Amino acid sequence: MAYQKVSADQRAPGHSQYLDNDDLQATALDLEWDMEKELEEPGFDQFQLDNAEIQNLENPETTDLNLDSIQPATSPKGRFQRLQEESDYVTRYTRSAPKSNPCNFCRLLKILCTAIVLFISGILIGYYAHKKCPSSATSSATLDLQLYQEILETIQAEDIKKSFRNLVQLYKSEDDTEISKKIKTHWTALGLEDVQFVNYSVLLNLPGPGASSVTLSSSGQCLRPSGRPCSEEARTRSGQDLLDSYAAYSAKGTLEAGVIDVSYGNADDLKRIQKMKNTTNQIALLKLGKWPLLYKLSLLEKAGFGGVLLYVDPCDLPKTANLSYDAFMVSLNPGGDPSTPGYPSVDGSFRQNRANLTSLLVQPVSASLVAKLISSPNSRTKTGVCSPLELPDNDERIVNMQVQTVTKFKTITNVIGYLKGLTSPDRYIIVGSQHLTAPSSDGQEWASSTAVITAFIRALMLRVKKGWRPDRTIVFCSWGGTAFGNIGSYEWGEDFKKVLQRNAVAYVSLHSPIRGNSSLHSMASPSLRQLVIEKSHFNCSRKAKCQESNVSSVQIPGDADYFINHLGVPTVEFTYEDVKTLEGPSFLSEALFPKRTAKIEEMDPFFNLHETITKLTGEVILQIANEPVLPFNALDVALEVQNSLKGDQPNTQLLALASRLRESTELFQSDEMRPANDPKERIPIRVRMLNDILQDMEKNFLVQQVPPGFYRNILYHLDEKTSQFAILLGARERCKLLASNETLQEALSEVLNSINSAQVYFKAGLDVFESVLVGKN
């Protein structure tokens, strides 16, 4: 705001030298009125005059009109409200009319009365107009917090518990057809729109007609994967239970060879072993954890091993987890139908003959079988200290392992339901759970997952029936074939790839919400981390006992895989974990243990944890679906890149490129994200352009070549203990086994190209916004 001093000597040419009292009084009123209009603009809501200016106003005949020194003050009130609050406003800021001219007083009185009448009329008109025509912003944006709470308050732990128990009763079904029908019927009854089956005929690898076995050559004792004698297990367990332990898509057959303990099977372990022994066609004794299983198997395959006995060391599990006799299942499928890699399994698709995905015979076994193999009676001593299972290098053990599996085409079913958005129906927030398809599962994990997603649908549809809708479309998915390599989600993603590349905004995972009961663990893309921390803190503030928010961007099991690694969609997942499990080796979740139904109810007897997960997840879904500007943070992505480059071997070129990326995102965050905070900035075309940039920014970090089992999206770390890019860690591991560093150079090139792509992406976005603004001006 600028005001200019006016004096008798500074009047414009042609202006009268003399102003009578009436003109002076009117001029003063006009100046006050104009000044008030200026002060109502942002940043000028309040003002005050110092003593010098007050004295000047009281002596108009001898001083100039000086308005330059008016400063903003402290009260953001409107003009009329300020008049009501300050009784001496008129006396301080207006000049008294000369007593010699009574007409001036009448004129002032008329103006004052007119202003009061207009003011009262404006209030009445505004009140009734607002009452009859509520602001359009209330459709989704301005009602946010209150609306979210009203929706989430209807979620009750008791309802989730009932749903869980009903679902568990269906686990005896031979396939997922009956379960899928039950889910579809339930979702439709709740009011969800367009609930449909999406079926795919896929190649599954299932246990053979007889159970696999391991025979100790020294004693001739035959053991089942659980560690029990073959004859005893045949008498005490049913045929279906014998199928609990196998590796889907393993090679099948029989192998008799020596056992070599390779510990966790990393590059250092293999380098040490190969110096001492011939590994060709031998059987590796391999611990699960620390690195992705598919990566470790690829190293063993290259080292010449013929078979693998896979187990989980009890020392890597919490003391409360007694799984010594539990067999487990793993899948060697990186994702999707193996017979149609990279394209959907629709009718007429070419089918490749891929009965097994590795040349290795892989058999998961229990810790008790390993203990018998190495003649170790107990892994824990009397003092409670755990001794890791280990076969001495100089000990020889010969075993005969028999792996029996069969491959067949079966139909797996996804259940998909839609809640169409009001203003942006072509933008999808995808929410995914799983339902039973694994032969070794008894309904624990998937029932918990399905009960949570159903509880949120119920709460949401209660509000929809009252006339409300989200701005963006919410797609609810119950995936089939998850245990075999996330087949249902992969096939659906490949089937609708072109649509999802353009329209998918975020993926919210409900794969396995309750894995423990001691710690809330949150996984989120870097761009969603701020939102997740905010919601976690809010949830914590409502509880008497809170822990520090644990939010990370790490590889997770489940159906989020396709959306993270092939679509580059920001992803979030809330789970409850055991603290000891988080402290142990990563990737133990690749083992699917056949949990008992009582286990979930032991961890969460009142289903309060289920309720918390449902409400937290629901609040994040609602905010992503309704915020005019997507709640994604571009700067956090750049910061994550810089943090991932910290380490013992910094690359100057990468660091410089990451610094430029940060500068671009800082500028983008400060200049272009204003519509997120200021409704006046929300020009529709500008908001749409901004959301398109935020939606697609993680796609820049998808790389083409990664080691088996690694994420293609390099923003995700291997685990919470490592902060460097996983692709670089894997490349350095491989360099230990190879003579050249070519693998490392390729990985560095992939990272460099990703960072450069992101920097160019944000720079182009800034240029587009600038050209749009210039065109408008």
From TrEMBL:
The chain crosses the membrane at residues 108-129. Keywords: Membrane, Transmembrane, Transmembrane helix. The gene is NAALADL2. It comes from Vulpes vulpes (Red fox). InterPro entries: PA_dom_sf, Peptidase_M28B, TFR-like_dimer_dom_sf. This is Inactive N-acetylated-alpha-linked acidic dipeptidase-like protein 2 isoform X4. Residues 1-21 are annotated as: Disordered.
